[in-house]
Amino acid sequence: MTETPSPQAVRSPRVQPSVGAALVLYAGYLVLFYVTWVVNRVDYMTIGQTADSARLHYALPTLFGSAFLVVMLSVFGWWRITLFDHQRSGPAWAWLGPALMFGIAASSFLLMRRESATPALVLWCVLGGIGVGFGEEMITRGALLVGLRARHTEIHAWLMSTLLFSALHVPNALFGEPVLAMLGQLVMTFLFGSLLYAARRLSGTLLLPMFLHGFWDTSLFLPRATGSDPNLVAIAVYPLAIACAVAVVRRQRGLRLGAAAGRSMPGEVHQREQRQP
């Protein structure tokens, strides 16, 4: 465990972290996102196939949701606690997961049919990736994690925030995604979300998961929109995600990182990590 020093004069949040406050942000983001889909009459199976679809069905919903979060996080005073942890945790080898994720995403861009990537398509896919990276990470591994930490141990906070991350994708079935495909997506997003949680704990900041999530999503949408062949290597990230997430989560047993508990725990956590392989 590496402790990240924090200034004593940091201002307390205007709204104390709680599960209820976090769920308000989660629900608000969901409502804005899916209302935008309803208004724009999204067909899930065609999202991102054209520049207009990337704008209406991918970029705008995530950017509207992100704008809502920017306002509410400022009102709550939650920026610091959602973006930064007091401690970093996890074995050094677990960095292989985030590194592989970045490498696979980068290779997808290299293999893409760039002649089909119009400026408008690239712009809206990139903006959509930024919206997804900021919005979905801030609402799940940011606000929800902070709210859950106020009441639960870190393992429970990881589990519940990651399940709620998967649940973000349940309404896809109402917009044209086959139910079986949606159920498979829930499993994959749970593994994906667990790896992003591991990236937060390894780095001590939400900024890394935000970048990785946005970069990964853009590497899926843009090549698909240009008619490029799927990058089959991408499936390799999921087995490694399991290994990395388990290794990081094991070190969170009994840990509490809520505002009240976080200040007294580093020494205890350090001793516990020394006893673990």
TrEMBL record:
GO biological process, one term: CAAX-box protein maturation
The organism of origin for this protein: Pseudaquabacterium pictum
GO molecular function, one term: endopeptidase activity
Membrane-crossing residue ranges in chain numbering: 21-39, 59-81, 93-111, 117-134, 155-174, 232-249
Pfam families: Rce1-like
All copies of domain CAAX prenyl protease 2/Lysostaphin resistance protein A-like, residue ranges: 120-218
Protein name in UniProt: CAAX prenyl protease 2/Lysostaphin resistance protein A-like domain-containing protein
InterPro entries: Rce1/LyrA-like_dom (IPR003675)
Keyword entries, A-Z: Membrane, Transmembrane, Transmembrane helix
